[in-house]
Amino acid sequence: MKIGIIGAGAVGSIIAREFSRLPENTVQLTLMARSTRDGFTILEQGVKTHHEIKVHDVNTVTGPFDIIFIATKTPALSVLQGKIRDLTHADTEIIYALNGMGYDDVFNSGIPGVVYISGQQNDDYIEHFVNQKIILPEQKYKYTDELIALIDNNPSVNFELLKSSNFNKMRYEKLLINVGINSVTALSKNTSKIFEDERMVKLTRQLLDESIEVVNQYNTDGIVIEHGFTDYAMDMYFSYPRSMGTSMYYDVMANRATEFKYIQQFIFDMKQDHSIKTPVLDTVVTLLQAYEKK
Ligand SMILES: NC(=O)C1=CN([C@@H]2O[C@H](COP(=O)(O)OP(=O)(O)OC[C@H]3O[C@@H](n4cnc5c(N)ncnc54)[C@H](OP(=O)(O)O)[C@@H]3O)[C@@H](O)[C@H]2O)C=CC1
Ligand SMILES: O=C(CO)[C@H](O)[C@H](O)COP(=O)(O)O
């Protein structure tokens, strides 16, 4: 089976590191990014390890692959639209290893994923904080089912690639997790340290409460997010290392475009009338929109 991973940052490198432990006679792996390099270094629990997994310039690669993981940032999706034809065949399964919602139709055979991998790409190494898990919708997959079986039968691969019949709810929950922490870390330009401040906790809770209300009132998937989800999300944030940022925080710190269009803006756009007052969400979206104006 031929697997391509586009994106060799915090998420793509962890996927590549784990899948590279699958037997070569079952999986041929190609890791791609915007530029070529001979490998990458991951810092985990204070230890740096170099992995000699070649990163190819995506523009020099031709497929076709049976499975492609897209682990870029969402602004790259439009750039990849032209390239993807060279990398796929009629049955290629394209898995979005991305945060956010609203981009599923960019590729015809796109499969959404809920990504729980937390890390940060620095200049010469990638810091991995917690989790290595991707959840997919419960359905039959020609190639991905085979990959899941290979992972399950290889104890050296420490990666959870799961299917869940509860996928739609999990996806909204991950979106809400990102709306909460990504907004406040990006806009304060600070890491999870901000949750030492009671006012930041209160603000984040209000943002989550408003966003949950929007999701519950307007989603068309029959999803109900329990109001206790705010406590669950806050407990998750409190458990993060204080030095851990979010992908949106790192984007803002590096003065890059953010993924707000498919995260905060997606929830904001769900509102079809003014029956729900969402002052914190509205302010967050306005500030992130203003940040994008270059
Ligand atoms: N970081 C995190 O903790 C988490 C991130 N996510 C989500 O996962 C996705 C990936 O995030 P993350 O790994 O942090 O991102 P990074 O910024 O660390 O890495 C992005 C990678 O995509 C590559 N890339 C960007 N544009 C293109 C392009 N046009 N063609 C080919 N490659 C491209 C970059 O290439 P190059 O290296 O050459 O610059 C880089 O390797 C995002 O949607 C993010 O929100 C989800 C959960 C956690
Ligand atoms: O859920 C996570 C940890 O696994 C996320 O990494 C965390 O909530 C921050 O968001 P991002 O996905 O943008 O890094």
TrEMBL record:
Name of the top EC class for this enzyme: oxidoreductase
Cellular component terms (Gene Ontology): cytoplasm
Sections of the chain in a coiled coil: none
Catalytic activity: 6-phospho-D-gluconate + NADP(+) = D-ribulose 5-phosphate + CO2 + NADPH
Domain Ketopantoate reductase N-terminal: 3-119
InterPro entries registered for this protein in UniProt: 6-PGluconate_DH-like_C_sf (IPR008927), 6PGD_dom2 (IPR013328), KPA_reductase (IPR013752), KPR-Related (IPR051402), KPR_N (IPR013332), NAD(P)-bd_dom_sf (IPR036291)
Gene3D superfamilies assigned: N-(1-d-carboxylethyl)-l-norvaline Dehydrogenase, domain 2, NAD(P)-binding Rossmann-like Domain
Domain Ketopantoate reductase C-terminal positions: 166-292
Highest taxon of source: Bacteria
EC number annotated for this UniProt entry: 1.1.1.44
SUPFAM superfamilies to which the protein is assigned, alphabetical: 6-phosphogluconate dehydrogenase C-terminal domain-like, NAD(P)-binding Rossmann-fold domains
Listed GO MF terms: phosphogluconate dehydrogenase (decarboxylating) activity
Protein name: 6-phosphogluconate dehydrogenase, decarboxylating
Organism: Jeotgalicoccus saudimassiliensis
